[in-house]
Amino acid sequence: MTATVEVEQTVVRPVQFHQVGKAFGHGRNAVVALEQVDLDVAAGEFVCLLGASGCGKTTLLNLVAGLDKPTAGRIELHSSRPAVVFQEAALMPWLTAAGNVELPLRMAGVPKAERRAKAAELLELVRLGGLGDKRPHELSGGMRQRVALARALASTDDNTGANAGKPSLLLMDEPFSALDAITRDVLQGELLRIWRATGTAILFVTHDVREAVRLGQRVVLLSSRPGRVVRQWDVDGLSGSAEVGAVDEINAALRKVISSHAAA
Amino acid sequence: MPQPDLQDDLYDAGSVEAGLDALDTPVNASEGSRARRIAGRVLPPVVAIALLVAVWQALWAAAFWPEFKLPAPSAVWGQVWQLVTSGEILELFWVSVHRAVIGFAISLLIAVPLGLAIANSSVVRRGIGPLVSGLQSLPSVAWVPAAILWFGLNDRAIYWVVLLGAVPSIANGLVSGLDQVPPILPRVGKALGAGRLGGIRYILLPAALPGFLGGLKQGWAFSWRSLMAAELIATSPELGEGLGQYLHNGMSLSDISMVFAGILLIFVVGVGIELLVFRPLENSVLKARGLTVTAR
User: Fold this and answer.
1) What residues form the membrane-spanning segments (chain B) (predicted)?
2) How far is A211 from B1, CA to CA, in rounded Å?
3) A228 and A20 Cβ atoms separated by less than 8 Å
């Protein structure tokens, strides 16, 4: 018995889903967004959630982020507060880039000097060092999304108190889908670099198979209405023809899921 | 994931990214020299005023109307100049402006909690929201008779009228400012760890600031208007002489140049405060958020 407990402690999973379900509305009109979802993310793991629209990807992320509550099952979080990056950068327009990164620290009551240093460090990490004084409207879409990433990382970084030493978790909701192709490509590379540099676990929602295979170590395919885990692929370290093959295979599975809705 | 030469890859990505940043950053065109910009902003209104005075002078010289209906521009200027040299103008300004400022400040203290309550609670909104909007369109002069009957001819009656003019505007401005906050911002705030109070202080209030400033500006205009109406109707020696009373005295003395001088001074104060206080405030807030291309 004690042995199992010890094992449980050594393999810390930042997030574990136990038969999670989420329905919106009540009674007959209820829309089931998620049903019986079981999903684990290991510490430092990069997991891509893939699905067509309406599969509850965003709902799932909101549940982990604590922005919404599941209606069935439970989600176990073993991490400091998850950092969230949304599809839009949603920077506060009245704050500078550095001010935006400092915002979560300010709300957590971190002293000013420490805040400054942390924000500068994070902006450096997303290669925006020296641009901290810029306002959001003075930045390009890609740069704004990087500020949003730095801000999210700042919010997860409270290694104080009860959360000390627990693996951190980054949630990303189609963060690059509003960007042009070149910027997206560059930012995908940047994200991989930052992931390696920080060792954070990432749960990344996308509807782009190629993106999922390029970024993720594991790709999880969700069905639509209700969202369920259909299949998972281990895509870690694939390259060349193996990568192309995985993309084709996952694409086929995704198409199958989508076309199953045509009958209904 | 392909991981060939990591170091080389990094350098490459960095320079591509830097290039993209340089290309994608919005460019602000310069607006020409400072002197030209100032001239461009100051000249049009000056020319307009000069034209207006010229037309006035011409009408007066043509003697369409008798002198007691349309005074000469110089006669009005004479009245103003006399107030300036005798120092009387300071007292007029002081009496009216300090009332307006105090009235505005009290309005602010009442309107902000009221606006927050309406914006945050649907019950309060349904209950008194329409009432507050309705009060905004009710001319606050309508309250002068009631105020005089309740409070007598004193400052309290005047403040009552000013409050009823300014509070609805400021409260409504705050409500619409809060309503226009994009819903993603409070969500982001929550994801970043904002509690209820933190969310209001760090996200909602700053996000609502542009709308709120609009409300403040309108609130000032309403409080100034209401004050002048109240001063004009409620005149008594105990109240001291403000701009409204000065205007009223001009009417009593059938001195049209004094009446015109009174209108001019009321106009100058109202516009002056807007230009000196609210316009710069609004411009700096909008500009910082990239909401205006050029300052107005």
Assistant:
1) 42-65, 100-119, 131-151, 157-178, 199-216, 256-278
2) 11
3) no
CA of B195: which chain A residue's CA is closest? A107
B179/chain A closest Cα distance in angstroms: 16
Q: Provide ipTM, 2 decimals.
A: 0.79
B4-23 pLDDT tens trace = 444 445 556 677 777 777 77
What domain range includes position B190? 92-296
Question: In what helix (H) or strand (E) does residue A203 lie, and over which residues does it extend?
Answer: strand A201-206
Shortest CB distance from A90 goes to which of B185, B202, B209?
Answer: B185
Q: Same domain, yes or no, for A127 and A196? A: no
Chain B residue with CA closest to A61: the answer is B191
Provide the domain count of chain B. Answer: 1
With CB atoms and an 8 Å threshold, state whether A88 touches B184.
Answer: yes
Inter-chain CB proximity A86 and B25 less than 8 Å: no
Of B1, B16, B21, the CB nearest to A214: B1
Predicted TM-score (pTM) of the model is 0.76
The model's pLDDT over A193-236, given as tens digits with 9 standing for 90+, comes to 888 888 888 899 988 888 888 888 888 888 877 778 888 888 88
> Residues A62-91: pLDDT tens digits?
888 888 888 888 888 877 778 888 888 889
- Cβ–Cβ under 8 Å, residues A246 and A238: yes
- Looking at the domain assignment, is residue B3 inside a domain? no
Based on the domain organization, do A95 and A107 belong to the same domain? yes
Nearest CA in chain B to A191: B13
Classify residue B17: in a domain, yes or no. Answer: no
Domain count, chain A: 2
**Number of CB pairs < 8 Å for A and B?**
112
Place of tokens 């989420």: A22
